Known about the structure:
single chain, alpha/beta, 2 domains, seven-stranded mixed beta sheet, 10 helices, 16 strands, 30% helix, globular
Amino acid sequence: xxxxxNAIVAAExxxxxxxxxxxxxxxxxxxxxxxxxVSYSSLNFKDGLAVSGKRNICKRLPMVCGIDLAGTVIESxxxxxxxxxLVLANGYGLGxxxxxxxxxxxxxxxxxxxxxxxxFTLQETMAIGTAGYTAMLSVLMFERQGVKPSxxxxxxxxxxxxxxxxxxxxxxxxxxxxVASTGRPETHAYLxxxxxxxxxxxxxxxxxxxxxxxxxxxxxVDTVGSQTLANxxxxxxxxxxVAACGLASGFDLPTSVFPFILxxxxxxxxxxxxxxxxxxxxxWSRLATDLAKEKINNISRVEPMSxxxxxxxxxxxxxxxxxxxxxxxA
Length: 330
């Protein structure tokens, strides 16, 4: 009989899809080329939706949840990796179309894997995780669009969340003046330590605003969507860039063409799921140089995989600060 291991598996129970801790064997895993001994995953908003069943994230069932993972290659039928390699994976439909990272063992397509930068431990890569990698993609988008620190302040919405926390840290370290939007005043000291220079209450951005407002931001990292995204677009300076990378408040966008045709504002979508491998490697290389090691510990904590169902409810309710690393072996 094959040795069993633990995983969080989403399945339909009494008409509802939820993720629960289950025992699997290697024979249960999909037929992919690389077998990974997973050490850590992390908790992301999408994971919260999938495990809690709040939204139809899993495209087939049963599904091992977890949109990212970090671990050690056990065996490989691909010449890209060998036993002992430290690897990570983000997106590519993990936890949606392909079995994901909330599992002590994973078989995965080698094309989904990135070698862990030498400067990071496996735990640190998941303290960054999909959220931090998405934040780095947003910073790279600013740079491609010519948004410089000397141009003016940048705004980060959903600032106390995972993407927001890493975005503030990165942007501040690169010399940007960072304004943080949050509805949780108790996080102000935490966000100041990460590099936020001032704050705006999220209520100021969530109410219906004018289609074209006073110019404030040269760049915006928006994790919220909906009316908040519409308002920050309307407030962005001429030629500025809004990096849209989340939908915590909703997927609608009640805006107008005015900011785009009268100010040349750029609305740039950040696709962390299917980003090219070249862009992924660039993002992780920049994280290795631009994200201060001491800040990684400030924005993260480690929790056992057995607590994922409860943590999923908390992140969907907006009660998680920073990043939560999931120890799949605890």
